[in-house]
Design brief:
Blueprint (H helix, E strand, L loop, with lengths): L6 E5 L3 H13 L3 E5 L2 H11 L3 E4 L10 H10 L8 E5 L5 H7 L3 E4 L5 H9 L7
Parallel strand pairs: 1-2, 1-3, 3-4, 4-5
Length: 128
């Protein structure tokens, strides 16, 4: 089966980092949408129906965090099968994230951008 839709949603509160990932993924042929808050991410996920979500755990203080987004996505019948790649600075939360259902867990400090892009490509094996 060839995936013709190559849409990725990035939910990352660091706008400059989000822009870098968006540019690099776009250069690789992906359609990328992004937002900096959890609620906007959920709204975009429902509207855009991405093939993959890149999610930060630490989102703006006092708002919906990445775990809230993850749990909401996994409870939604239409979105629970979308693979979610957590990309965070928290190296201590992998067990919790995997229990909720993430496909991959990457710590930003240990994974340069190029490595993240390669990991993303593995979710689209028939499109290269």
């Amino acid at each position: 089966m060839t995936i013709t839709n190559r849409k990725i949603l990035i939910i990352e509160d660091d706008a400059s980092l989000q822009a870098i990932y968006k540019e690099m993924l776009t250069d690789e042929g992906f359609e990328v949408v992004g937002t900096t808050t959890g609620q906007a991410g959920l709204d975009l996920a429902k509207r855009e129906k991405p093939n993959l979500i890149i999610l930060d755990i630490m989102l703006p203080f006092g708002k919906m965090n990445g775990f809230d987004v993850l749990e909401t996505l996994k409870r939604d019948a239409q979105m629970k099968t979308i693979p979610i790649l957590v990309l965070t600075n928290l190296d201590s939360e992998e067990k919790t994230a995997r229990e909720i259902g993430v496909a991959d867990y990457l710590v930003k400090a240990n994974n340069p951008i190029g490595k993240v892009i390669e990991k993303v490509k593995k979710y689209f094996p028939d499109s290269w």
